Amino acid sequence: MTTGSGRWSDAGAMLGAAARWLTTPLLPEDYLGWVNPLWSAAQLRGRVEAVRAETADSATLLIRPGRAWAPHRPGQWVRVGVDIGGVRHWRTFSLSSPPRRDGRITITVKAGPDGFVSSHLVRRTRPDTLVHLGLPDGRFVLPARLPRRALFVTAGSGVTPVMAMLAQLAAAGMTSDVVLIHSAPTRDDVIFGTALRAMAARFPTMRLHERHTREHGRLKAADIPELCEDWADRPTWACGPPGFLADLAEHWDTHGIGAALRQESFHPLRYAEDDGDGGRVRFTLSGKTAEAEGGTPLLETGEAAGVLMPSGCRMGICRSCLTPLGEGTVRDLRTGELTSGEGKYIQTCISTPVGPVELRR
Amino acid sequence: MATLTDAEADELARELDELRREVAGDLGEADAKYIRRMIAVQRGLEAAGRVALFGSSRRWLWWGGTACLTVAKVLENMEIGHNVMHGQWDWMGDPKIHSTTWEWDAAAPAYQWKHSHNVLHHTYTNVLGRDRDLGYGLIRMDPRQKWRPVYLLQPFYNLALAALFEYGTAWYDLAAQVEIGESSEEELRRQAGDILRKVGRQVAKDYVMFPALAGRNAPRVLLANLTANVLRSIWAHQVIFCGHFPGDVQVFEEEVLEGETRGRWYQRQLLGSVNIEGGPLLHVMTGNLSHQIEHHLFPDLPSNRYVRIAPQVREICARYGLPYHSGPLVRQVGRHWKRVVRMAFPGGR
């Protein structure tokens, strides 16, 4: 049997190689993706099939991923690329559904007050839109052997990865004893509110505590023992804004059970303030670091630090110095324009750091 | 050369920088659609041409297929390849339509061409001894180039160069590096290997694989592919030679590069470039190099924008008393050939 399938895959590989000769310098992929965007294995895409409002400012997007998608584990996240005004923007979102039999995935997005991409996804995305996808990633998941007891502590849209885990537990009959403590401004702001309440009503082994902060004030770690007496005996998954998680981590640490707390946080992209260019530049491939003054191009900073920096004309016209940006923000010395975003290519000959910057060189 | 004072040159730089900023700030959905549609049209034409040629025993399918393939190759090289590799579409953040990843359907490997074109030609435009696009090291284009008897033949080998332009450009960057003498022998050997591999794949595709698939139509397909490649080469050669040589464009001595300000750089680009007048079809088929002046001022602004900023550039030129060389295709081709013929003989104007 194995020889048979080997022969088939050999034939497939030969066919692939022959096709590559015919499409050179493109790949057969480029034509496949042209016929159907979801066929491309090189560029993973997904088609938005439905957009369902969750609250006034959040929505769940049902997406059919292309064939290169790999099944995820509940609690994992995915990078999503959206074209807005001709420019591709990448953001990370939790997958809010467990793996489904029909192969669809869902992400649930909350439109932040200055969330350019999240607002676009929540308010202006229509079914049939194509989005770009990364592969699922992240270690904020349930263990292979489901825990007997578990505590989930979430705030705002932090409930999305936990929703996927709860759905997984529900699918397994909710044999675990589960407590969810969730915090949101009002009852109407609870993302998945209806589904969570229905789930809690259906399974006696699940308890739901909603904390409406507009009315009862912010949820603090110190409140948790009151809401869940045996909190210290439960493996805990927490997700929410950075300040919220820091508070929880401190609480768990002071009780000496920090290892029982698993956290996931998405901090929004930090745009640098307008005061003070310059900053520490870390060259991640060569492992070198340099302090850069504002106004000095990154190309010169790198060369002075002994990093091999490709360059051409140094005038910003030839683009041979393009380098992928890691974390941080840079300023175009010609136009004053700021650029940030991991993976964006910047021209080191005309860019200066604004705050700490990482470059893949 | 300077008809402008230093202060005027600085003011010119400020105005052109401002124009650049306006366009860069205005890029959006419509521009992204333009290049994606252009790529789709190009791939569609190529696929249609290849398919039609399988039936090329019928005369009309041979002609139709060859025409589609020729147009596809012209678009691929000029409006798409040349411009993507300039980084004109990098702003979209699409890794497929990006100067760092694009490879084109021509003999020259993309990374080598980007060096010879984006770095050498665009930085040192029309500087004798630095810009090898001035005659590509083969043709005497300026009276200051020393005359040698071999130049008497240059009208003929300029024709041959046109037909084989694709292969000329493939070896062109390597020749430039040998001339500069900066690259090690090992590095040159590696690059020569890259060229041979690329040429091998290109030749295999057009002259072996596709003919072989056509069975008894193989010779017809081979001839069609050869025709498309040669016509594309001749067209590219004409357009490129029209960009910097017809009429009275200026050629500069190396001294201009010393301490050249941004304004003086802009001025040199203006004085050394020539536009071709025509309609939208001409602009697309030349990869918008019909707007050579705008392209040389702003090589990384998307090509579809040149036509719209041309009136502003022309107006700026008029205000500063700078020439704006422009003329219809036939006249520009005529002038470029006149120069090739004139410079074949000793002396010169």
Automatic annotation (TrEMBL), chain A:
Transmembrane segments: none
The keyword Oxidoreductase is annotated on this UniProt entry: yes
Keywords in alphabetical order: 2Fe-2S, FAD, Flavoprotein, Iron, Iron-sulfur, Metal-binding, Oxidoreductase
A GO molecular-function descriptor: 2 iron, 2 sulfur cluster binding
Gene3D superfamilies: 3.10.20.30, Nucleotide-binding domain of ferredoxin-NADP reductase (FNR) module, Translation factors
Domain FAD-binding FR-type: residue ranges: 41-143
Cofactor: FAD
Domain 2Fe-2S ferredoxin-type: 279-361
Top-rank taxon: Bacteria
PANTHER family: NADH OXIDOREDUCTASE HCR (PTHR47354)
Protein name: Ferredoxin-NADP reductase
Native source organism of the sequence: Thermomonospora umbrina
UniProtKB/TrEMBL annotation, chain B:
Coiled-coil regions listed: 2-29
Domain Fatty acid desaturase: 62-326
One cellular component (GO) term of this entry: membrane
Annotated GO biological process: lipid biosynthetic process
Cross-referenced InterPro entries: FA_desaturase_dom (IPR005804), Fatty_acid_desaturase (IPR012171)
GO-annotated molecular function: oxidoreductase activity, acting on paired donors, with oxidation of a pair of donors resulting in the reduction of molecular oxygen to two molecules of water
Keywords: Coiled coil
Entry superkingdom: Bacteria
One protein family per Pfam: FA_desaturase
Protein name: Linoleoyl-CoA desaturase
Organism: Thermomonospora umbrina
